[in-house]
Amino acid sequence: DGSVQLASSPRVTDAARLRRTQALAPFEPYGIDVARWLMSRKLMGQGKLVRHRFGDEETVETIGNLALATEGAATVDELRQLEASAAALYFGSWSGRAECAPSFAAKDRTRIPPHWSRYEGRRSVLASAASNRKAERPVNALLNYVYSLVEAEAILACQAVGLDPGLGIVHADAKGRQSLALDV
């Protein structure tokens, strides 16, 4: 399901002042500033990838406008809405493209369900609430796997600089969730 099972790194969150500052971030102006910065960088990266891989300038421009809109977002909820809009455009630009469809060895093609041979979006019919968890298609399974590797790296990076990977700003607190790592 893409959940990190193990991350090996010494916990370096023994700086009480840093932990307090991090814990208060969602409720302070500097927290929304950090969230805006993280979100704008993410959206700009999505736009760059769409331009580089697909040359879809219309989608690039729209995602770029959403990235600029992060500057004026007053709340984390507004940032989440901008991110959701950008994600729909970003993954929508993948749909139907041959370069986003997995390829299989010729000897296996007769055993492969037809819907596995194309990319039709980031949602899974196996997950509740139309989420991207529990991928039932190869591309989404690979994305979940890669995102879990990136999450593990973000957990280690947070710990290396003394931040608690569980105290996020954009991602809500949840048991077992490394919210800051997901923000990063």
Which band does the percent of strand residues land in?
under 5%
Structural class: mainly alpha
Summarize the helix and strand pattern as letters.
HHHHHH
Q: Which stretches of 5+ consecutive residues score pLDDT under 50?
A: none
The biggest beta sheet reads:
none
* Mean pLDDT rating: 90
Structure notes:
With about 180 residues, the protein is mainly α. It is about 50% helix and about 0% strand. The chain has 6 helices and no strands. The chain has helices at about 15-25, 30-55, 55-70, 75-95, 140-160, 180-184. It is globular, with a radius of gyration of 18 Å.
Strand and helix map with partners:
Elements: H1 16-24, H2 29-54, H3 57-69, H4 76-94, H5 138-160, H6 179-183
Keywords, separated by commas or semicolons:
0% strand, 184 residues, 6 helices, globular, mainly alpha
Brief account:
This protein is mainly alpha-helical and 184 residues long.
